[in-house]
Amino acid sequence: MKYEAVIGLETHIQVRTRSKMFCSCANRFGDEPNTNVCPVCMGYPGVLPSPNREAIRATVRAGLLTGCEIARFSKFDRKSYFYPDMPKNYQISQYDLPFCSRGAIRLSGTGFSGAPLPEKAIGITRIHLEEDVAKLTHFGGASGVDYNRAGVPLMEVVSEPDMRSADEAYAYLTCLKEIMQYGGIGDCDMEKGQMRCDVNISLRPAGATEFGTKIELKNLNSFRAVHRAIDYEIWRQADLLDRGVVLQQETRGWNDDSGESYLMRTKESAHDYRYFPDPDLMPVVFSDADIEEFRRELPEMPEAKRARYERDFGLTAYDAGVLTADRELAQWFECAAEKAKQPKLVANWVISELLAALSAEKTTLEQCRVKPGALAELTDLIASGAISGKIGKEVFAVMLAEGRSPKSIVEERGLSQVSDAGAIVQLVSEAIEANPRQVGEYRAGNAKILQYLVGQVMKLSRGRANPQLVVAELKKQLDG
Ligand code: ADP
Ligand code: ZN
Ligand code: MG
Predict the structure, then answer these.
(1) Among 30, 219, 254, 362, which residue's Cβ finds the most Cβ atoms within 10 Å?
(2) Residue 161 host element (H or E)
(3) Averaged over 180-186, what is the pLDDT?
(4) How far apart are the C-alpha atoms of 184 and 197, rounded to whole Å?
(5) pLDDT digit string (tens) for 358-381?
(6) Which atom of ligand 1 is nearest to 161's Cα?
(7) At 269, is the pLDDT very low, low, confident or very high (cuts 50, 70, 90)?
(8) Residue 200: what are its φ and ψ, rounded to 5°?
(9) What is the 10 CA–ligand 3 centroid distance (Å)?
């Protein structure tokens, strides 16, 4: 490759709060259009905005979780523009004094294409808080405006131009989303527009130190689209540069259906937003003690969780990774592991049986009939030898279907393991009698046939005999 790509992302993330940023309307997706509106978010004259503390706290939390410095003094500014998605004709945002600046996100794991990523941190230039704008829907020559979204708290996370490939951008977004979800900051559901991303990308000759002319790409509504759009744009810009074209700064859109970007506007038509401090809003001042308090309240992040699972529960890095990939799953697992005698066994069951069942039944953890306490009880039954792992699976299937406790299922169906010596002697004798040919082979020196005979005893016991005792008794009767 003759060129190196330079990529910086601007990501908007809706903050999960009960009410909007500057009024008490509900911050809720999916309601009837224009039902969560009031004079403040509709921009009526003479109203006063009042800032949402929870949204500010969440933004500071986002900053701390990405290693940012938190401003002791910050303020809100008005960004002027005229468009139907913003009834006030200005958006309340932050200009020169954002809440958070100069942080970084460490990439981890593999990229979209499965290739391992370099150990690398992506700088965070700033995180500021603003209000979202209305959602426009265009149909048949007309447009509809839904102001339910206008005024919803929205963070903008601006990265440094530190990424060099579509894979790195994809990994950055994955890590960012994980941090936001774990931090209880936002749900980041892209289908609901809760996370939206603009990509800035330029090419420069490999080895050059100066950046090339950047193109901004908009309308990217999935991580996959981001990945595709970057690869496409690298190809498009490289082709132009090869032909000696001098690139101009421009904003382009992405058409995910055709897999191509298209020109939206050039630099000449760039907006002048005429930022100025919002005179209706007081500056926000934090003391060192305030920030210390924010720091103390930070939740445990996936990396720390993974390390703890490996250390305290003896899990492999892979298993710890699977269990922490999703915050709800991690909570579910911890709840079960706390109650169980063997947390590692719980981990195995969650990863192999529970997750498989959820995907087979296309259901969620929340809807699942098996609760953490019940899985803990099941693994305890297996660990104590009361039932075998194989019977455990049978019990688990009933738990999934009926949501009952494993103990009651085992009792009702008489599934508990047979460890009674007399019963085992009886079962083994029966199996030996019924299989004279295999017994002969065994005695003639074919040790492998023992496994077959064990299987026969298990069958006679309908899977309930204690396998260790069966092996010992078989050897005793055959060798003796
Ligand atoms: P603007 O003033 O046009 O908004 P900024 O300097 O604020 O530009 O940068 C916006 C985003 O573009 C940031 O994420 C930044 O990392 C990225 N960026 C800046 N310069 C380049 C470049 N030459 N190539 C790629 N990305 C860039
Ligand atoms: Zn309102
Ligand atoms: Mg900018």
Answers:
(1) 254
(2) none
(3) 94
(4) 20
(5) 999 999 999 999 999 999 999 999
(6) 16
(7) low
(8) -105, 130
(9) 8
